[in-house]
Amino acid sequence: MIELGVNIDHVATIRQARRTYEPDPVWAAVEAHLGGADGITVHLREDRRHINDSDVHKLRDLTQIKLNLEMAATEEMVGIACRVKPHMAMLVPEGRQEVTTEGGLDVAGNEAMLKDIVARLSDAGIVSSVFIDADLAQVEAAARIGAQVCELHTGPYAHAFHAKGRDPERPAVVAELEKIRVAGEAIRALGMRFNAGHALNYFNVQPVARLAGVRELHIGHAIVSRAVFVGLREAVREMKRLMREAQEHPTALSR
Which residue in the list 10, 31, 50, 70 is annotated as catalytic? Predict the structure, then answer.
């Protein structure tokens, strides 16, 4: 059954706007758990713009569901991951000037370096994941470096969905979803776990959640935004319900 990983970075973003101690990301993790989240995701960025080292340590010690640590493929971050030992470490590209992650990791162009990092994470007992575009060359490279999980970048699909009037039947939207479906099929055929995420929200999540074999969706900004009005627990509950409903009613495209 499909799972939901809730990214709580932007709870920390609100805290950092005032350089204070609230809202507390650990409290957010508990509320997300009570709303039905299966895991918590945080991105420890090199510039520490939202989540910081203390948050990661507290979340690992105090939360009762799995922790997914998004991180750049750097020596500093690998060292932190090996000390903290999150349940999963997801390697992502990172740029200092970007507002959010802008594309998938180039695994095919950095295989030797990434293979070493994945091996080190594995030796520390950490499940390794890579955030990649829905591109078969990247999927195949992920398998070669030993990644256990591929999270497909759903941003292009989400942007097409929004640009085309939130109509899932528009050709541009169908084309982007088909790329994700094909890449997801390849991921599973190569023995890796198929996850997906980025820019998913309450309007566009169901077509992705219906795709065959998708194991977990990671969603943050939309849930934290909804939580401003309904509370985090309810915002998570609503998203989980949409995902479960989607899997109960698959379409021809999703099979």
Answer: 70
